[in-house]
Amino acid sequence: MEAVFSGIALILEPFNLALIFVGVLIGVLVGVLPGLSSAMAVALLLPFTIGLEPVPAIAMMAALYCAGTFGGSITAILINTPGAPPAIATALDGYPLAQRGEAGRALGIAAVASVMGGLFSLVVFILAAPALAAIALQFRPQEYFALTLFGLSMLATISGKSSLRNLIAGALGVLVSTIGVHMSTGVERFTFGLSGLYEGISFVPVLIGLFAIGELLNQSQTLDKTVERIKSVAVRLPSREDFRRVRGTILRSSGIGTFIGILPAEGSTVAAIIGYNEAKRWSRNKEEFGKGSIEGIAGPEAANNAATGGAMVPTLALGIPGSGTTAIILAALIMHGFRPGPYLVRETPEFIYAIFTAMLVANFLFLGIGLAGAKIFSRITLIPRTFLWPSVFVFSMVGAYAYAQTPFDVWVMLISGIVGFVMLRHGFGPAPFVMGLILGRLVEETWSQSMVIMDGNWWGFLESPIVLLFLGLTVISLFWPLITEHVPKLFRSRRGAEAGSP
Amino acid sequence: METARSGHGRLIHKTDLGLALIVLALCGALWYATAQFDEVPAVLQQGVLPTDFPRLVIAVIAVLALLLPFEHIAHARRGSNIDEERSVKVKPISMVTALVLIGLVAIMIPFGMYPTMVLAAAVMPLLWGERRFGRLALYVLLFPLVVLLLFEQGLKVNLPPGVFGDLLG
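ok -> structure tokens follow
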């Protein structure tokens, strides 16, 4: 109980509350602006947090993460341009409702559903994270190795067009994580004589490059497109009748979003899409979907925000990122000297409660900001891209330098950005690469430790039921795209054959 | 709209074949690089050797890359277009932007961070078509100064002074 109060007290310090407010403000801002993502904002925020204590630093990022997911719905509803990928499904019904002159109602539903989804997932987070960590404390390197493999294999199922490309990008990330001096033998790997590579590639410049510079170059491709300006709009809270209609959807989507968030690598985008589909499947007014259904807004919004709290569970309790943005938060934890995982939960429980409180505060803050400040935020899209993106570059350059104060990192940032841009054009997303980069070291370390423990005997892996469980899950998730494509077909053809037979 | 060559209707997608060959060549080069790693002293040869893990990952990437040229078939079956993102060719402005970014980073150390920020704030908006010179002047004047103060005074980061900083002492 002492840890709970310590955690809450840490966050309730005025300075920390102010940082959370700033995090929420930045989160809604980047959420509103198409092209800027919460992942990019968290990556750019990393260098600013170097001088901060770990708790306010991570709290600020977590607040940004929550608010950024909600912020994307504002542009999705008002101009049919999701400010962030998790808001894609929100646009399907939010925009038609806004076109009917009910933008304020749509935004109100989105804000309330987001907050409820967020709160639901936080309750799960605070109950599940310590429980999961307690289980993970029993894990030996063998189990951890299998768990990390499972985390990587989930890249095959995350959003993005191609499972194959997600896996390749993830594997490339893992490969990049091997650059530098091998810890146990001192052998240099892929350093090519460059002293800047001896300690390996730092996460910070790579993250900034992939998310900020990659997107900057992507934006340069669309300079000839005119950006629609948002009209000012007053947001209103859902009426009792509206709330009665969406409460079931919110509850269901919150559960779905939290569960998907907890799964390693899965993030808000997948949660939102499933939340939308389930809202439609369970609705009594299916015909309204796509034409401005309030359930079609509440479903994805509750789910995508619920995924934020869910994604923090494996990130903090296991050290396995629950999403692209939490992968960056994980990198920030490492940067601040923490080793995310069960020991973090056991040794510093007040830290977990502090993050929980920060996310709780963030949810209420963005409800207030979203409702009261929508008029102001709707004007954010008036910032010309010709000033916005050069500013992103300047922050990227200074941020990459500030981390270790070496020009080498600025080059790493720039090269990562250019390579990321080329990779993205060919369908290799930055999020899987980052997951691989962060999990790579853990995979190698646990594999190496396991082999020492098992005296080089590969079959030793199969002696643990937990390892077998995770290996089984790994196989399922690797073949998940094939399973989802072929199994329903198989059932349909069998049913067809049965119906056709006399 | 200019479009990249598509592989629809064929067994092998040409662009992805090229992509696969590049990935495979990279894998080959990196495998060769692993062969150049220093030898591990016998006393340290336990568990996983420094070459084992990178080689395993390289092999996985190579195997996955072999599937790339055929992936479009599954996409076509699902009705999605694998070439959507790359259907529009890289525009000259993107290439020029990339070159300008490289140039700016290259001059960062000799010229210093502040002059580089000023130059970036001036050149990039102009390159991207900004012609409201009053606003631009204000942006060039204020934005780099705010960033400089934020990092140097607020976060106590020593940004590279460069030749101008050295001259000013």
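The radius of gyration of chain A is 23 Å.
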